[in-house]
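Researcher: We're teaching a course module on how sequence relates to structure. For the next exercise, students receive a sequence and then see the predicted structure as C-alpha cells, so they can try to spot secondary structure elements on their own. Here is the exercise chain.
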Amino acid sequence: MTDQTWNPLLRDQISWHWANQLRDRLDGLTDDEYFWEPVPDCWSVRPRGTGTAPVQAGTGAMTIDFAMPEPEPRPFTTIAWRLGHVIVGVLAMRNAAHFGRAATDYQSFEYAGTADEALAQLDAEYATWLAGVESLGDTGLARPCGEAEAPYGERPMASLVLHINRELIHHLSEVCLLRDLHLHTRREAS
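Model: And here is the predicted structure for the students to work with:
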C-alpha cells in the first residue's frame, strides 16, 4: 500500500473516535467532575503538598499521585489523574521522543489545576501527535520506534501509532464513563 493509504488509515482510526465519541463527550467537563473521588483513597491531581501517595510528581502548583512499584491492587484514579496520564504518559512523552516537543515526563510536567486547563493541554498534545503521525508517511511508519520505546524500539512506528490509538480510546472512554457515573450518582443523591 502507499503513503496515501496507510498513513491516513492510521490517523482516521483515532480521528474518527476523537471527533465522534471521545472529545465531544469531554466538552463541559467541570472542576467538580475533574477532581471527583468516587471511592476513598483515589489517586488524583492535587495541590502540591496535599497528596498521600508515596510519589507526588510534577512541577508547579499541582502534582499527580504515584507509587513505584504500583501497589496491588492499584488505587482507583480520578478523571484528573486519567487525563494527566493521557496528556503526559501517552501523548507528551511520545511527542517529545518522536515529534520535536520539548522533553517532559511525569516529574517535570506542570499539571492542570482545572478541567478547562487539562482539556487545553489534551487538545494541544493530541494536535501535536496527529500532526507528527501525518508527517511520518509510509517510510516513517516502517522505521523502528527507536530507543525511546525500549524494549519495543525495533518495532515499526506504525505499531506505536496503533498502540497510542488504543491507549487514547481506552483511557478517554474511562473518563467518559466516570462522567456518566458522576452525573447519575449526583442526580440520585438530589
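Model: If you want an answer key for the exercise: Residues 42 and 76 are 5 Å apart (CA to CA). Strands lie at 45-47, 55-57, 62-66.
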